[in-house]
Batch of 3 targets.
Target 1
Amino acid sequence: MIIPVVTTVAAAVVVVITLMNGVGLQKERQNHLRSLVNRRIKRQVRVKRHWLM
């Protein structure tokens, strides 16, 4: 049940990043967004590990 959520989140992230690139935002904001996204993914991975344990 958790893996599909991760895939959908990843797809949404890709769409968001492509939209941001299309709009032409500053790289600083993009980096900030990527760091936030990475944090969320890491949290999900931790949750997944917890479920597996």
Note: Residues 2-52 form one domain.
Target 2
Amino acid sequence: MEENKGQSAGATRTQFTAVGDLRRSWQSWAEDHIDYQRQNPFSNDSKPVTKSVHPQRGDPIYGRPPEGSKTEQRGKDAHTHVGKEVEELCLIMRNIGEKGDDGNVLFSCLLLSQEVYMAVSAVPFAGNLEGPL
């Protein structure tokens, strides 16, 4: 009987420890969220004490996402992706165009749009460039 009391007391301590850990974890999340909302210009929290100073035009961080945020990473990924798309477009223009006397490449915009359309579109749509224009 004494053994059972010892075991149940240990189990109760384990439960309290787990609940305490959960409470601390939740409290930490709540504090982080409050800090995040202080930085969020769209937050409904209008208390001047809790609002942080937002960057003004001319500040190097104005119009930029917080450093290390997912938004910053998405922007970097998009920048890389768009850069590759522009390089591909330049390659297509060089391939379909003719070199002029001044060394610049000349091409027809219609030919370019047809070439790009064929290269990137696998799904037909009502505005396709096939047939007479």
Note: Residues 2-39 form the longest helix (38 residues).
Target 3
Amino acid sequence: MSLSPNMHGTCREKNMHKKRKHRRIRLKELGFPIETSYWRPGEDYLKKIIEAAKKFIEDGDLIVVSEKALSVALGNIVDEEKVKPRIVAKILAKYWIPYFWGYILGPLCHLRQETIARLRSYPYREGSAHKEVALRYLKPIYALHWGSEGGIDASNLPYAYVSLPLKNPERIAGEIKEEIEKKLKRRITVMIVDTDKTYSIRRGLHLSSRPSQVKGIHSFLGPIAYILGRTLRLKRRSTPIALAGLSLPADLALRLAETADRLRGPGAGRTVWDMAEHFKTSLTGVTWKMLDEVPHRPIVVFKLSKISKRKVYSTEKFMLTKANFPTGGKSIGSVKNRKSHSGDKWKKDTKKR
């Protein structure tokens, strides 16, 4: 039996309507960075997080917090001006970084020419103290990395201070989750992240150059993971180091961490060199006051609550299982009848509350 023209038109309209109803969610549409003042040592980070995010958090949301901001607030920092380097640290700063990284590993890892030039002129005095900190506080293998050794970070910190990786990030993530649920009566998930990259071989093997307590992310290779990842041009994303709440697949946790990092921005600079150029000063000439003037976004809220109660369809790229989702939502992939939700509109909505 042949179909009439009207029936053909009706079928086309139904198919177009189905296509319009189903749209893949992009994580950046769900994530919103929250700007706060710069967190100094001794800050009550729990109070800071609650005050900054209390108007925005709902049941089922994911709260991403910067590890560096937490380390600074906890006083987990070292003044390298007061560090006396030993002979091994001096050798690393004088020969290993400028020659081995500057002429062999740097080009092999496809580093930018600007970065390679900086490594070849690696500062001996500051570099020796920095390598001594890596040798003293972490495993010796991390000191072989040219920068961000095992999570040690000097960017967005004043003078010669560096932040150390958190000793027990899972406990801290749990404390943040408990405090938010206690004070705000919201069931949420907390993720602590670092900008250091994890390198993925397809979706099965995730290698990080720094320690992580997230299941499925392997950090036993240390800086070798960085060399392999950069040399082979593997997919690289920011590293989630601890989770409290949802049990997320490693690949999804990595996607959330990378999206959060991009939404937060670089602050005063990605590296200590970038920071010094930003403020037009020396590597150790940045002050607390200078950093106070830069926008800081240590928190990103992912509004998973916006989609948890809607009918959704699972995909390979973005999936949360019903068992893992705190509000009983089904798998997340494409949302039915979901309107576009821009950051500006979301901010206006929250102001009305």
Note: The chain has 13 helices and twelve strands.
